[in-house]
Amino acid sequence: MREKKIAVVSMVRHAALFANKWIEYYSRQLGEENVYLFIDGFDLELPANAPRINYMQEAHIAYPRVKGDRRRAHKISAFARSLFDRYDVVMAMDIDEFVILDPSIDATLREYLQLDFNCLSVSAMGVDVGQHPDLEAPLIWEQPWLSQRQFASISDRYTKPVIAFEPLTWGSGFHRVKGKDYTIDPNIFLFHFGLVDYQVTLDRIKNENNHWGWSFHNKRRLQLFKKIQANTPQEGDNFMRKAKHKLVKNRSWWAPNKPAPLRGNTIIQIPERFRKVL
Fold first, then answer.
1. What is the bridge-based pairing of β-strands 184-195 and 97-101?
2. Which single residue of 138, 144, 203, 236 has CA 20 to 30 Å from 17?
3. CB of 41 within 8 A of CB of 59?
4. What is the pLDDT of residues 75-115, one digit of tens each?
5. Which residue has the higher pLDDT, 218 or 95?
């Protein structure tokens, strides 16, 4: 049986610090020739390693946040559908998100995705990584990130169906597949690093247009730092097992094709085995 071909695609605008890491990580996992990145604006400086992959730079059009999210999901969905002429699996996510296979599995991510999943898409459990304001120093971006961060929130919002095995249409933010159910794989995690550094987060918020629907979204973002500061972290593996059961079972009546919000303390200490992955 021939090996499945796997591609990954994202878009970058106000997240230059993440772009090089995203390109480096997925190039290592899948090969540079299988990495695709839309660069939203000719006013942006190219990521240093962009010439090694497939990048497409386009003129930026300013939209309110919700409309912009929908446009991005629609654009990447259409592009991903075109990739299925050449690929068997297409992954799509935001530029600060990284699909990570549990290091306890004796395989690479590319090898693991060769399995027969017998579904349209796979969701990776969301791990929202944040800086502890009292215990952790500012991130040294050139060094492994997970060696510098101990805490995260297990998140229904970041438990996204980012791995597609057939052409599909993602909803805004890749939180759901339109008209389809979701399947959560127990060994695949989506690490979100948008809040990995407190000061960088504040600086990014200042650069975004709060008059275009960003104000409430940014206030919700900042809650992670307070949750990490206020809650005693739970043991990661035990809580992730319990959370997966809830994320599979619990649905909201208004959004049955994505997990319902997790309640209570969702803060964990990230298991040690993840520290050298990224």
1. antiparallel
2. 236
3. yes
4. 999 999 999 999 999 999 999 999 999 999 999 999 999 99
5. 95
d(C-alpha 130, C-alpha 225), whole Å: 6
Place of tokens 């599995």: 105
Name the strand (E) or helix (H) holding 41: none
Task: State phi, psi for 220 to the nearest 5 degrees.
Answer: -65, -40
The neighbour count for residue 262, using CB atoms within 10 Å, is 20
Report, in angstroms and rounded to the nearest whole number, the Rg of the chain calculated over CA atoms: 18
pLDDT band, very low/low/confident/very high, at 69 (cuts 50, 70, 90): confident
Residue 200 is inside which H or E element, if any?
helix 198-207
Q: Taking all residues of the chain, what is their mean pLDDT, rounded to a whole number? A: 91
> 21, 277, 15, 25: which is closest to 148 by C-alpha?
277
What is the rounded distance in angstroms from the CA atom of residue 128 to the CA atom of residue 164? 22
User: How is 21-52 classified by DSSP, letter by letter?
Assistant: HHHHHHHHHH-GGGEEEEEE-TTSPPPTTGGG
The pLDDT assigned to 210 comes to 52
Using pLDDT thresholds of 50, 70 and 90, give the confidence band for residue 13.
confident
pLDDT tens readout for residues 235-256: 999 999 999 999 999 888 888 8
Closest by Cα among 143, 183, 165, 162 to 95: 162
- Beta pairing, strands 234-235 & 267-269: parallel
Distance CA 250, CA 158 (A): 15
**CA pair distance 159, 251, nearest whole angstrom:** 13
8 A C-beta contact, residue 174 and residue 95 = no
Record the pTM.
Answer: 0.94
* Residues facing 267 on adjacent strands: 153
The helix/strand/coil state of 115 is coil
